[in-house]
Amino acid sequence: MIWYVATLIASVFSTRGTTAQGAHGVREEPQFVTARAGESVVLGCDVSHPLNGQQTPYVVEWFKFGVPIPFFINFRFYPPHVDPEYAGRTSLHGKASLQIEQVRSEDQGWYECRVLMLEQQYDTFHNGSWVHLTVNAPPTFTETPPQYVEAREGGSITLSCTAFGNPKPVVTWLREGEQLTSNKKYMVSDGSLTVQAIAREDRGAYSCRAHSDQGEAVHTTRLLVQGPPYIVAPPENITVNISQNALFTCQAEAYPGNLTYTWFWEEDNVYFKNDLKLRVRILIDGTLIIFRVKPEDAGKYTCSPSNSLGISPSASAYLTVQYPARVLNMPPVIYVPRKLPGIIRCPVDANPPVTSVRWEKDGYPLRVEKYPGWSQMPDGSIRVAEVTEDSLGTYTCVPYNALGTMGQSPPATLVLKDPPYFNVRPGGEYRQEAGRELVIPCAASGDPEIPTITWRKVGKPSRSKHNILPSGSLQFVSLSKEDHGEWECVATNVVTSITASTRLFVIGTSPHAPANVHVSASTTSANVSWEPGYDGGFEQTFSVWKKKTDLGPHDWLSVPVPGSQTWLVVQGLEPKTAYQFSVLAQNKLGTGPFSEVVTVNTVVYPVSTPEPLVLLTPPRCLTANRTQQGVLLTWLPPANHTSPIDRYIIEFRLGERWEVLDDLIPADETEIMARDLIPDSWYEFRALAVMDDLISESSNVVGVSSTGRTITIESV
Ligand SMILES: *[C@@H]1O[C@H](CO)[C@@H](O)[C@H](O)[C@H]1NC(C)=O
Ligand SMILES: *[C@@H]1O[C@H](CO)[C@@H](O)[C@H](O)[C@H]1NC(C)=O
Ligand SMILES: *[C@@H]1O[C@H](CO)[C@@H](O)[C@H](O)[C@H]1NC(C)=O
Ligand SMILES: *[C@@H]1O[C@H](CO)[C@@H](O)[C@H](O)[C@H]1NC(C)=O
Ligand SMILES: *[C@@H]1O[C@H](CO)[C@@H](O)[C@H](O)[C@H]1NC(C)=O
Ligand SMILES: *[C@@H]1O[C@H](CO)[C@@H](O)[C@H](O)[C@H]1NC(C)=O
Ligand SMILES: *[C@@H]1O[C@H](CO)[C@@H](O)[C@H](O)[C@H]1NC(C)=O
């Protein structure tokens, strides 16, 4: 367009030179006027009167390029006729110039001023003078996103800014002062910004900036990310003394921010916990206050803020309640066994732990040290080495910790009881075949009560069926392999328990699993040893099972163990590899269960230290020069050698065989003179280096003819 107008104007002016003699309101050159929006500007236009000097009346017309009718017409003192676009802000300035106030960006463009001379018979119409008005405008936004925009966590959003101005502003997006460029998170193009995969961290201010040399405009939008709350100040562990108030914070941020906080004690809502609900309050900021804490309030408190979006987070902390030591459930009667050690306990509950317990016996402070065989144990209990009638009485205890005590226990009366005793003890051992019945006798008495009798298997409890007969005897209706082992008969009354043990061999079963499997591994072998289990009544043999740890359960391989040996060296392992081993016993009735599986790593091959490299290269560049005195041999030392050179050897030959010319040439010499050579002969020489016990390969061979004046040298 500009180009078109310029061409047009050029043609206007080029024609004028010939035809516009007497033109009015004419300038030779187009004017270029620049103004800032809002300012006032004058578009110049002169009136040149005809040569006769007469002041003829004239009409001024102003055209905007592209609009065929003038927007401003002025004739003499009549009010000008103005297009509504320009009304109120245009006026004639001087003879024909136009003043425009409050210039607008839209006013930019080419203007033409035409002056029509009236009362003139000729040349009443001329193209006038051309003015180009440039209106500079600082950037202003025509479209911006709202001040606040919302987006869901995980979603995306596009913000658009369009700016207007002259020259055309460039629009960029900024976040925290940094200009944004397109990447995984943002797509920036043409004044619009797309934020993708929106996360909580994307919340906050985004600014679009429109910039030109006329200035800049900035618009800021805050992105609010809708999502579940985020706990900014989680609760912290606290310790309070009894009756104080406890306070847990739980500050969360969220959008939307209509948060409700729920607090749990252990797994229960604090408002649903009977003892607690009347003493708790949850403040609007999520803080939980527990008034006048009790020891029972101790435990885990969990807060969970929610705005009904997504999964509500939670955070926990522990409340520790300190309270003076107190006695819980002191029994009114304490039974102690006559003539046996007895313990008088003070059942204490304290936090921090109890530091001391004071006792009273029959209302008087009890001095333990005054009674031989009495002592106070670390937990405050009194131990009596042998309970007699002297020990009888009423006991009370008062426990203390750092916070003091909650007071004395109720009184407990000591009552002597005889311990139970066995009337029938089980025998030392029993052997019975599997599947058969067996009764192991045990009976106990006591005075006055009959003690209760129980049986238990030592070690792994037996899942097989067994009964305790009314007499106290242990009955197996049908013995099973599992019953094999050590059993204890326990007789219990209020004061104590006594036990009697016996061994039961269940014969006629497959062997029991070997125990204590031990493996010591080397690089490629491992010595597996074990303790045999019970053989089930028949001779047992073993096999060792192995596999690489990373292989599956089908890859176990077995190696038989010769004779009754209880160890085996497993060969053919790979170094630095994890292996698993288990041992299986077998007798004529079958195999027992596998032993425990032991995992070991074979060791790494010992790293062999390489032999130090011995290197000796031959002497180099041997040359021979015949001189007056003889043949001068020179050479260079070997290029590479690991130790210093000891000496050099020079050898010569006349025919086939090499002979030593000199074998004691010091290492710091690299030439010798070969004298007294046989005339008219073809000599060849070579050099060797000696280092430690090593003789190098030979150097190059040089040949010298001792014939005539001309010396012939050849390298062979
Ligand atoms: C005046 O300008 C118009 C275009 O606006 C052009 O067509 C015409 O030839 C011009 N006349 C003279 C006399 O220059
Ligand atoms: C809070 O107390 C619990 C339980 O006593 C403990 O496991 C946790 O490490 C404590 N936390 C802090 C931050 O001390
Ligand atoms: C609790 O009581 C003890 C002993 O009186 C005192 O040393 C401690 O400061 C108290 N703790 C608090 C949190 O008040
Ligand atoms: C929070 O406000 C949203 C939208 O107004 C509503 O759907 C939600 O139920 C409110 N959540 C809570 C916990 O009041
Ligand atoms: C394997 O270990 C057993 C038990 O430690 C030991 O008695 C036995 O001699 C060892 N065998 C070899 C070959 O080292
Ligand atoms: C050998 O003799 C030639 C000529 O006489 C001389 O240029 C050269 O340097 C000599 N070389 C040595 C190693 O002396
Ligand atoms: C000497 O040693 C260097 C570096 O190890 C090697 O590049 C060169 O070839 C050796 N020279 C000879 C003559 O062996």
Characterization of this structure:
- With 716 residues, this protein is mainly beta.
- It folds into seven domains: 2-137, Sandwich (Immunoglobulin-like); 144-226, Immunoglobulin-like (Sandwich), CATH 2.60.40; 230-323, Immunoglobulin-like (Sandwich); 328-417, Immunoglobulin-like (Sandwich); 421-507, Immunoglobulin-like, CATH 2.60.40.10; 515-601, Immunoglobulins (Immunoglobulin-like); 620-715, Sandwich (Immunoglobulin-like), CATH 2.60.40.
- It is built from two helices and 62 strands.
- Strands 1, 3, 4, 5, 8, 9 and 12 form a seven-stranded mixed sheet that branches. Strands 10, 13, 14, 17, 18 and 21 form a six-stranded mixed sheet that branches. Strands 19, 22, 23, 26, 27 and 30 form a six-stranded mixed sheet that branches.
- The longest helix has 18 residues, at 2-19.
- The two termini are 91 Å apart.
- Residues 527, 529, 567, 569 line the site of one 2-acetamido-2-deoxy-beta-D-glucopyranose.
- The site of one 2-acetamido-2-deoxy-beta-D-glucopyranose has 5 residues, from strand 19.
- Keywords: Cell membrane, Disulfide bond, Glycoprotein, Immunoglobulin domain, Membrane, Neurogenesis, Phosphoprotein, Repeat, Signal, Synapse, Transmembrane, Transmembrane helix.
- It is a single-pass membrane protein.
- Residues 38-115, 139-224, 229-320, 324-415, 420-501 form the Ig-like domain.
- InterPro entries: FN3_dom, FN3_sf, Ig-like_dom, Ig-like_dom_sf, Ig-like_fold, Ig_I-set, Ig_sub, Ig_sub2.
- Belongs to the immunoglobulin superfamily. Turtle family.
